[in-house]
Amino acid sequence: MAEYAYAKSRVLVFRHNGKVFLEIPNRLIGIHSSIEPYPVKVRLKPSLVQGGTECPGLMTEEKPRSVMFEIHPEILQTLETKGRKITEEPAPLGDDLRPQDFDFLWVSSIPYPDDLTRRLHPLMHEIVSRLDYPPMVTIANVNTWIEFNRFIDAIHAIPEVVSKGIFGVSGLTVDLYFEDRAYHYSNVYYPQYAFFKPAGEKHGVVMGPAEIIRLLESHPTSADRLSIDRVMESNDEFDQEILFG
C-alpha cells in the first residue's frame, strides 16, 4: 500500500491551454533510469490517459523523471462531476486515483533466482541507461537484453569454450544526427554492452560502454588484428562469422 500512497501524492493533475493533463512519475509507467533502477509494485493502467500510456507524452528538461499525458475524457468527466477544481498549478490526484486504476505487480522476495542473475544484476540498469539519457529514449530494449543473456548462457554451457577467448559486443549505429538546427549523416558505432572472456577463464565479465572503450583502447589495432570497425565492415560485406582470438 506504500506504493499506492506514493502514487496518490505523485500523480499530479493540472490545466494547460484549455486541456487537462496528468503528470505521472516514470516509475509508474515502467520507465527506469540508472537513478531509479528498482522495479515497482504498482503500474498505472492505460485507462487514465487519452490514447493510453503508449501515446506520445511530454517530458520536459525541468522534470525529466515524469511524463505529461492528456487525461482520459471519462476520468475528466468524473472529476468535473465531483466538483474537482483543476487549475494551472499541478496538484496531487489524491483519492481520485482509484485502486482499480492500477495493476498490482507481485515482486519476488528472492533477489537472485540464479547465479547468472546475481552476477549481472549490479550492471543491468547501468548497461541500459549508462549515460543517463532521457528515460523515454531506449538504448537497449528488453528483447535485446534477453537475447544477450541467452548468448552468455550459451557460452557458459559449452565446456569447450574455456580454452578460447570470446568478445561479443552489442550497441547502436548513429546514421543521422541533429546539431545547430541542421541534420548530418554519420556512421558512428556506439557500444552499449559486451561480454568478454579471456582464454582459459571459465567465466567472463559483462561490460558497459566505459569498460568496453577501455578494453578496446588497451588492445591497439595492428596489421594482424581486426579492429571493431573492420569487424563491422566484414559483417556488412561478407555476412560472415568473425572470430576473436
Secondary-structure blueprint:
Elements: H1 2-10, E1 12-16, E2 19-25, E3 42-44, E4 66-70, H2 73-81, E5 91-92, E6 102-104, H3 115-128, H4 142-157, E7 166-179, E8 182-197, E9 205-207, H5 209-217, H6 228-238
Antiparallel strand pairs: 1-2, 1-5, 2-4, 3-6, 7-8, 8-9
Could you explain how this protein is built, in words?
The protein has 245 residues and is an alpha+beta fold. Helix content is 28%, strand content 24%. It is built from six helices and nine strands. A four-stranded antiparallel sheet has the order 4-2-1-5. A three-stranded antiparallel sheet has the order 7-8-9. A hairpin with a 7-residue loop joins strand 8 and strand 9 (205-207). Mean pLDDT is 66; it is low at 33-39, 106-110, 119-143, 223-232 and 234-245.
